[in-house]
Amino acid sequence: MNSDKISSLDISKVKAPSKSHNTITTINPSTEQVIKEYTLITKDEIADLARKSKKAFKDWRKDYRRRTGFMYAFASELKKHKEHLARVATTEMGKTIKEARSEIDKCAWAVEYFADNGVVFLHDEVINTDARKSIVTFEPLGVIASLMPWNFPYWQALRFAAPSLIAGNTVILKPSSVTMQCGLEIEKMFEKVGLPDYVFKTVIASGTEAEYLIDSEDVSAVTFTGSVPVGAKVAQHATSRLKKIVLELGGSDPFIVCEDADIEKASSGAVKGRFINCGQSCIASKRFIVVKNVANEFLEKFIEKTEKLKIGNPLSDDTDIGPLVNQSAIESIDEMVKRSIKEGAEVATGGQRIGGGEEDGKRDNGSGKNKGYFYKPTILKKVTPNMEVATEETFGPIAPVIVAEDEQQALEIANNTKFGLGASVWTQNLNKAEKYSKLLQAGIVTVNNVVVSDPRVPFGGIKNSGFGRELSKHGMFEFVNIKSIRFYDELIHQHYVE
Hints:
With 498 residues, the protein is an alpha/beta fold. The chain has helices spanning 43-60, 64-80, 82-93, 97-121, 155-167, 180-192, 207-215, 228-239, 263-275, 292-306, 327-343, 388-391, 407-415, 430-439, 472-477, and strands at 23-27, 34-39, 125-127, 133-140, 143-147, 170-174, 200-202, 221-225, 244-248, 253-257, 285-291, 346-349, 353-354, 374-375, 378-381, 398-404, 419-420, 422-426, 444-447, 462-463, 466-467, 480-487.
């Protein structure tokens, strides 16, 4: 694609599924079988959709109580259809069914949270100034284009959509090419509760069509979650049209184990933090920086617990680790491990592609080819801070362990990165925890637990991890006009009819 184009608005950390000039085909990562072929929306259809969404906005913005009623009903539909929605996600991108169910539960929670609290967040603020009366109001912007990834296809779409819809905006979602059906299922759930036409719409689009969406004069703002290179291009494209944009990009989150950490809990947290969603998470723990005095003990327990993870069919309730999202992803991970070994790292456990039945040698119809994009959870030791696996975002089940001389060096290593999304610190000293959490350069810091997003607190990063915030009232305010109004002199009360 030409350099002035957005090269991949698929927003995957890896290459998109197979597609022709006007269709996209999705693949089941467990079986490598085709799921479905979708026809891309046209430029004219996008223009018509954006125009109708803007028209719907004029009415949608008027009645807060009506909006919250729809959102409560939508949350109920999510709960009612949790199993179906979870299976769609597992089939399309490979996350385990138990993780997919948890994702739906979290979505319902977020929708209800903003329905519960939106009226408080959006309430006019009265400010004491020299004017007779000064207020700050929070008014919706209009149509928001939402360009979302595949790794949490429901959560990442709805953590933005819920507060934006409550605020009175309308939304057009472009899901990843990997998880088209998940995006369509969200639209279906809104249709089930009778949401007015064009308040929320999902589009089947590639990067080219997403450009048309950003270009539309009827679209007021853009939100993007995905990789750094694509995010930079999206931002350039949107801001050149003077449109507000929020970016949630990649991360290389440090996991710092201090010398006084509870190693049992820290090692369990390491497994959870690194291997959730098969390691395909922006806020997964990606660099394990351990103080030398406790490094051997931590590594031993980390390896032991990692090797107990069950790899297999993601639709099974017993499975802990499913496949990577596609062929490109597993090739990227395998090559990363091989390069790390050449740089001097050693494989402590894992380090190989396997079949869907773990080491049982299952093959695909006797072809000799591994079935599914499965990679064994891998821990690398003797990693140095300047190795590729410690400097770039590793989107898969690889855990590099870096040994620091002391806690001061651990903090320096943690901050010596182009990313700044999340970080976690493991210590039993409260004063130390407060000090280190403020020194870490990240948008989110968690002490004695892994980093997770929460509707009640703002979510987002600094540096190459993006800008702007999602969730909490701060996320809601990203897509409203924060308007100051000041009244001078005496005014006569009159009834006003619109």
